[in-house]
Every structure is written in C-alpha cells, then in structure tokens.
Amino acid sequence: MTKEIIAYTAGLFDGEGCVDIFKASVSKASKNPSFLLRVVITQKQGLIMNWLKDNFGGNVQMSKRKDNYIYRWDIRSQQAKHFLILIQPYVIIKKEQVDLAIEYEDRKGKYLETLKGFRGFRQLTKEEVDWRNSMQKKLSDLKKTYILYTKNVSANND
User: Fold this and answer.
1) In angstroms, rounded to a whole number, what is the distance separating the alpha carbons of residues 72 and 59?
2) How far apart are CA 96 and CA 142, in angstroms?
3) Cα–Cα distance for residue pair 120/135, rounded to 1 Å
4) What is the second-level CATH architecture of the domain 3-144?
5) DSSP 155
C-alpha cells in the first residue's frame, strides 16, 4: 500500500471517523466489564466502506435514514490498533486520540498476556479496571476539546 493511499485513508479518518474505547456489559463469568478499542468511519458512500473492509478488515453495516443509506465501517481491538499505527504519521486533527488509543491497546494486550484464565476467563484487578475507565474518559474528553480556528492576524492592524 502506497504512502499516498495511507495518507488518503488518514484524511478520511480525520474527517469522517472516530476512535473510542467501548465498554461492554459485565460478564457473569469474568465479573469484569469488557473494554475494546474501536475505530469507526461513517459515510453515505458505500464503495469507500467496502474498500476499507477489503484493505483493512473489519465490518461494514448499512442503515436506511430517511431517503438514503448510511454506511458504517468498524474495526476493533488489535486490528484497530494496527490500522491506527498505519495512519498515525498522517493524522492531523485526531492525532492525540490516535496516540492515546494505541497506548491503551498496547498496555491492554501486555496486561492480558500476564493473566491466567479460569475456564477461559481472565479476572481483571480493580486497578486495571480503573485504568481502563480512566483511559476511556481521557479519550472521551479529547473528543470534546475544541480549539477555535483563527486567522493569523498581524498585531499591526492598520
């Protein structure tokens, strides 16, 4: 895949995408909530969604809204991390979000490798659950940060 294609994809993500840490319901078996990294791009153009799926994996869903369709591509966990690493050098608007998401998935993966599963389920410590909640909040807060664009105005306005 060329740098131009990756940069184009980063621009598509910057404009139409989002990254979040999704908190699923608490599992009866593990007694912990599940947290997963998720990247989503939504658009009216279905062809680009299929292209994303073909090139990066994930899933495409279609929903009808009024007189047209909305297409949603999403990718999760390690697959999402690899996608974000690929586009990271070219992302501008959502760079901090991408960096935080990669940091989250890196630590999550390393942490899970250290746990022994009971019947296939891994029990997270309270500290790990608290950290995951804090990362989810940080990412959510980053999305609420808005920096007003202002033109470069000379101090010597005549």
Assistant:
1) 8
2) 8
3) 25
4) Roll (3.10)
5) S
